[in-house]
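[Discussion] Sanity-checking designs against the backbone

I'm trying to build intuition for which residues belong where. Below is a structure token string of 412 positions. I'd appreciate it if someone posts a full sequence so I can compare it with mine line by line.
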């Protein structure tokens, strides 16, 4: 059996560092997913305000806008100690939420969530850089796919568990659960065997350091189209997601039917995560991302058809969109970026990819009130499909062959 068809999980688990890292992602992802759900419910129960409950997500996502700046921290120190320190900081901060018992304490909850989001940006940048050093290059595609699979799987399992803990013991107990997962993940990360040299003294001011990562990303012939396609995909994903309840209403179901569609979408994400390693080795990052976007674009257009079978199939296809783009972009950034710039470049890429999702959600919420879903969905599908074209053009250029690493060559 060739490396193109070998299953990702055995390949990753045979590598000690990759196995420990993946275990840490699963553990910490469980706690994070549980807290994300419960924080909004907690605020809603304390205040009765939907707007304040929605601010929980905003508090956690807002620091993403400062990704290029926060990412510099991952390039100014060794990544393993930084990753461990970020985990322990969050574990300690979460314990302060035991003092939140009334609306008067909400300022602390929002402050912790904001720091949680900022530390998460630094954590992701350090993790992306450390993975590139700790995991062999031929395994990066498999590892990143399994990482997405683990994250999506936790989104299916952790929210119900978190809701159960919240119902029985309150919000502070969920914070304690999340803190424990950070401590356990810290122990797993400490087991990584990786040699990191002390970063060289930085030159120039903070602004110049931040711009250096963004400049590298923007001028790179393969990373720029992936980052732009990722941002376009997340913008369209936000528009598409805002129309979910209009689709459910057209099917004649209650809003709770969204849970079924989310579960099917999660299953699609898990499936593509498991297959991403072999797919990346056969197609390359650009084509892999382009095909995922194209499949999702077709699904978005077909959602205008009022059929349960079509809606379920489209949800499964939609689950492919995010993993394809994220796995392709992250793997390319890890392979193509010099180590000294990797933290900043990864954080900048995350900002470019995730920020448009918020804009899409806001715009979609307005469009769904003004226009018929049967008109919007086909147009959105066509627009979404167009975003895949630059990736296919870049993949067909001679630079693709020249820049691929030997481990990515098709052994067939």
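Best answer:
Here's mine. Compare freely.
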């Amino acid at each position: 059996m060739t490396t193109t068809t070998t299953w990702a999980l055995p390949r990753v688990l045979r590598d000690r560092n990759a196995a420990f890292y993946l275990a840490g992602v699963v553990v910490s992802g469980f706690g994070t997913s549980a807290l994300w759900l419960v924080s909004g419910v907690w605020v809603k129960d304390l205040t009765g305000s939907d707007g304040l409950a929605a601010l929980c997500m905003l508090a956690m996502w807002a620091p993403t806008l400062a990704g290029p700046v926060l990412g510099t921290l991952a390039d100014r120190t060794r990544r393993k100690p930084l990753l461990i320190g970020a985990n322990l900081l969050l574990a300690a901060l979460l314990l302060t939420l035991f003092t939140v018992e009334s609306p008067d304490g909400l300022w602390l909850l929002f402050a912790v969530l904001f720091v949680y989001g900022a530390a998460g940006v630094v954590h992701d940048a350090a993790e992306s850089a450390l993975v590139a050093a700790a995991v062999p290059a031929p395994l990066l595609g498999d590892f990143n796919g399994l990482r997405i699979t683990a994250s999506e799987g936790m989104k299916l399992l952790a929210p119900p568990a978190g809701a159960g803990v919240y119902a029985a013991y309150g919000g502070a107990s969920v914070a304690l659960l999340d803190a424990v997962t950070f401590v356990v993940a810290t122990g797993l990360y400490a087991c990584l065997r990786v040699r990191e040299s002390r970063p060289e003294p930085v030159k120039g001011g903070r602004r110049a350091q931040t711009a250096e990562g963004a400049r590298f990303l923007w001028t790179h012939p393969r990373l720029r189209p992936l980052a732009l396609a990722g941002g376009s995909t997340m913008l369209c994903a936000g528009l598409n997601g805002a129309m979910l309840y209009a689709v459910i209403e057209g099917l004649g179901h209650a809003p709770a039917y969204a849970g079924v569609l989310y579960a099917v979408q999660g299953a699609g994400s898990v499936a593509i995560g498991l297959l991403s390693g072999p797919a990346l080795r056969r197609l390359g990052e650009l084509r892999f991302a382009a095909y995922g976007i194209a499949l999702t674009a077709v699904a978005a257009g077909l959602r205008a058809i009022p059929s349960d079978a079509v809606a379920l199939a489209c949800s499964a296809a939609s689950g492919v969109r995010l993993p394809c783009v994220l796995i392709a972009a992250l793997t390319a950034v890890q392979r193509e970026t010099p180590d000294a710039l990797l933290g900043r470049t990864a954080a900048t890429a995350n900002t470019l990819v995730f920020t448009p999702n918020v804009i899409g959600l806001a715009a979609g919420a307005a469009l769904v009130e003004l226009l018929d879903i049967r008109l919007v969905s086909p147009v959105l599908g066509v627009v979404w499909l167009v975003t895949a074209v630059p990736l296919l053009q870049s993949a067909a250029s001679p630079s693709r062959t020249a820049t691929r690493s030997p481990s990515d060559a098709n052994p067939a």
